[in-house]
Design brief:
The structure is a single chain. With about 450 residues, the chain is an alpha+beta fold. The protein folds into 3 domains: about 5-175, Roll (Elastase, domain 1), CATH 3.10.170.10; about 215-345, Neutral Protease Domain 2 (Neutral Protease, domain 2, Orthogonal Bundle), CATH 1.10.390.10; about 365-454, no CATH class. About 35% of the residues lie in helices and about 10% in strands. It has helices at about 10-20, 25-40, 95-115, 160-175, 185-205, 265, 275-285, 295-300, 315-330, 335-345, 390-400, 405-410, 440-454; strands at about 5, 65-70, 80-85, 125-130, 140, 145, 215, 230-235, 240-245, 245-250, 365-375, 380-385, 420-425, 430-435. The chain has a 6-stranded mixed β-sheet with strand order 1-5-6-4-2-3, covered by helices on one side. A hairpin with a 4-residue loop joins strand 5 (about 140) and strand 6 (about 145). Helix 4 (about 160-175) packs across helix 5 (about 185-205).
Length: about 450
């Protein structure tokens, strides 16, 4: 299985900090961006360390299996183990927060939804703290959680936020269930689901109901002096921060303000604000603990057989409305609240005619940019065209390629010095990737060459 690395701080926010007039903030943000790019380049199926085998719990065992390591402020993973399951606290605040956060996340999924760890089969929960020098992020790489200590000016240690820990571990749950493609609306749903269960981890741990919860993601990350309350606000997207260094929270709260962009994998951290608000509104309308009804409906859809890896907001919304009716009854308060939550944010529940709802078919006049660069001579060859201008078979091949995760899986991977690279961009599908020629399959390479030569 190929894993995509997921981080809590989006690249657009780090780029903003990298442009700061404060050298301390800018230098750390720039280094974090470089580190994140390097980690993306190395993503794939390889384990974190030679010989690493993902352990699973014994049959019938129902306890978390945590293992916390420290990178000692280096970029070496997995680092040295400093705490295992059932061992006493270490006195290292970050290590103990990670240990407790893993336990809280495991408890929500096990005690509320009957799921035994991330994969449903007792997977060990490994994590590494003190990654890098002032590293301004935390991420899930498909096998472990990794936490930076923050720059000490904008961000504090990333283990301090319980919902961030729950958010990142939930990416592992999604990988093992719906496997939502990490681009465009399906990618925003991927981020949304992690926000939902991340915030539910915190609410469950604190015993909060939907009305009293603050619905903030990353409230404990921002340090004093930052004009903001969190990274995201689920009940009021777009209001989490407005700071000279961070900029203004770009999340929309309604489909009328949906952001079309090729940045951030098509706005996955931005447009997730729309379904986030739908969930929070539904949970508040239902009342009581959000994990009981709204959370159960979302979990039913995430682990069900009907969700597509390329689901968009509308198809996901229809599935949640149907799941609420199936579990609580047609016309029940829960069913009504879920339906009205989506209506509030402008997501249509109407069943489309023709093509399946979750199939993204680009318009025939959608523009495709294909640019080949590199080689010893540094030659550049480029073509801008539309799918309608291509031979019918090639147009179908491009459609399949642009609406899959095939290019993302090899984006900027294993580049060769003086080797050729292709930039593929299609704004209509929020695709803008650069891939090494050597990583393409023979049929993909032939398709690229035919398109450039036409």
């Amino acid at each position: 299985m190929t894993y995509r690395r997921h981080s809590i701080v989006p690249p657009y926010l780090l780029r903003r900090l990298a442009d700061s007039d404060d050298p301390g903030v800018a230098d750390v943000a720039q280094q974090t961006l470089l580190t994140d790019r390097s980690l993306r380049d190395r993503r794939g199926t390889q384990p974190s360390a030679p010989g690493y085998v993902r352990p699973v719990a014994a049959v019938g065992e129902a306890t978390p299996r945590r293992e916390i390591s420290t990178a000692g402020n280096t970029d070496h993973l997995p680092g040295a183990v400093i705490r295992r399951e059932a061992e006493p606290a270490t006195g290292d605040l970050a290590a103990d927060e990670a240990y407790d956060g893993f336990g809280a996340t495991w408890a929500l999924f096990r005690e509320v939804y009957g799921r035994d760890s991330i994969d449903g089969a007792g997977m060990m929960l490994p994590g590494t703290v003190h990654y890098g020098q002032g590293y301004d992020n935390a991420f899930w790489n498909g096998e472990r959680m990794v936490f930076g200590d923050g720059d000490g000016q904008i961000f504090g240690r990333f283990t301090a936020s319980l919902e961030v820990i729950g958010h990142e571990l939930t990416h592992g749950v999604t990988e093992n269930t719906a496997a939502l493609v990490y681009r465009g609306q399906s990618g925003a749903l991927n981020e949304h689901i992690s926000d939902v269960f991340g915030v539910l981890v915190r609410q469950y741990q604190l015993g909060q109901d939907a009305a009293s919860a603050d619905w903030l993601i990353g409230a404990d990350l921002l340090l004093p002096g930052v004009d903001g309350v969190a990274l995201r606000n689920m009940i009021a997207p777009g209001t989490a921060y407005d700071d000279p260094r961070l900029g203004k929270d770009p999340q929309p709260d309604h489909m009328d303000r949906f952001v079309t962009t090729s940045d951030d994998n098509g706005g996955v951290h931005i447009n997730s604000g729309i379904p986030n608000r739908a969930f929070a509104e539904a949970a508040r309308a239902i009342g009581g603990p959000a994990w009981v009804a709204a959370g159960q409906v979302w979990y039913d859809v995430l682990t069900g057989s009907e969700i597509s890896p390329r689901a968009d907001f509308a198809s996901f919304a229809r599935l949640t409305v149907a799941a609420a009716a199936a579990r609580f009854g047609d016309g029940s308060p829960q069913h009504t609240a879920v339906r009205e939550g989506w209506t509030t944010v402008g997501v249509s529940l109407a069943v489309p005619t023709g093509a399946a709802a979750d199939q993204r078919e680009p318009s025939t006049d959608a523009e495709l940019l294909l640019r080949r660069t590199g080689g010893i001579a540094g030659l550049v060859k480029e073509r801008r065209t539309t799918l309608d201008d291509l031979p019918a078979k090639d147009a179908k091949r491009w459609n399949r390629l642009l609406t899959s995760e095939a290019l993302l899986a090899i984006e900027a991977g294993n580049p060769v010095a003086d080797g050729y690279c292709y930039r593929v961009a299609c704004e209509a599908l929020a695709v803008d990737v650069t891939v090494p020629e050597g990583e393409l399959t023979k049929s993909q390479r032939n398709l690229f060459q035919r398109t450039l030569q036409a």
